[in-house]
């Protein structure tokens, strides 16, 4: 399963955001990496700005280029605003929903839970992080894994009400994907229109 395994703090510093989760390095060095990170930056071209936004979205959701391009093509052929549909498709990935449910502190942690077969969808174990979850489906922790410390620690104090498109059931340790989220409900700082403009060239 392809995924980014490079230095995460360096990428977070590049974008000036903790896109992989809490980052102590970013807190200490809130400037771009490299020899001239603290120096004057040259003006970025329009293409550079668009490319940067696409890269930020890819790193945020843990998707590599080919998969991201396929998602864009699917969004482009779907009725609706292409950029918004793209983000909605990314939000509907199983690893992202496991993250939104608070079962893991980061998307990479959520991806690991999925790939190690700790997560079920409608009662069936699914170990494909990119699995597209549909409205009404129930995502849960597999019965024998409900006592896992990593999940308990992640859930401790987690506020499930901040994501109105997901309903959490603490008793069964499961969440229902109620509906596709509206753009204003997706908290990621991504300018999706720039991505659309990049692919439209």
Essential attributes:
201 residues, alpha+beta, Structural Genomics Hypothetical 15.5 Kd Protein In mrcA-pckA Intergenic Region, Chain A, 5-stranded antiparallel beta sheet, 9 helices, globular
Summarize this, please?
The chain has 201 residues and is α+β, with helices and mostly antiparallel strands. The protein has helices at residues 8-15, 24-28, 46-61, 65-76, 82-91, 94-100, 107-115, 149-155, 192-199, and strands spanning 119-121, 124-125, 138-141, 166-169, 174-177.
Question: How does this structure look, described?
Answer:
The protein is α+β, with helices and mostly antiparallel strands and 201 residues long. It has a domain at 93-179: Structural Genomics Hypothetical 15.5 Kd Protein In mrcA-pckA Intergenic Region, Chain A (Roll), CATH 3.10.290.10. The chain contains 9 helices and 5 strands. The chain starts with 7 loop residues before the first helix and ends with a helix. The model has no long low-confidence stretch (mean pLDDT 87).
Please give the structural blueprint.
Elements: H1 8-15, H2 24-28, H3 46-61, H4 65-76, H5 82-91, H6 94-100, H7 107-115, E1 119-121, E2 124-125, E3 138-141, H8 149-155, E4 166-169, E5 174-177, H9 192-199
Antiparallel strand pairs: 1-2, 1-3, 3-5, 4-5
Helix pairs in contact: 3-9, 4-5, 5-9, 6-7
Mean pLDDT: 87
Sheet bearing the most strands, described?
Answer: 5 strands, antiparallel
Structural class: alpha+beta
Helix content: 40-55%
CATH class of the domain at 93-179: Alpha Beta
Strand order of the largest sheet: 2-1-3-5-4
What characteristic shape results from the CA principal axes?
globular
* Extended strand count: 5
Estimate what percentage of residues fall within beta strands.
Answer: 5-15%
The whole-angstrom Rg is 18 Å
Indicate the CATH topology of the domain at 93-179. Structural Genomics Hypothetical 15.5 Kd Protein In mrcA-pckA Intergenic Region, Chain A
Q: Which series of helices and strands comes N to C?
A: HHHHHHHEEEHEEH
Number of helices: 9
Any idea what the CATH superfamily of the domain at 93-179 is called? RNA-binding S4 domain
Q: Distance between the terminal alpha carbons, to the nearest Å?
A: 30 Å
The CATH architecture name of the domain at 93-179 reads Roll
Segments where pLDDT lies below 50 for 5+ residues? none
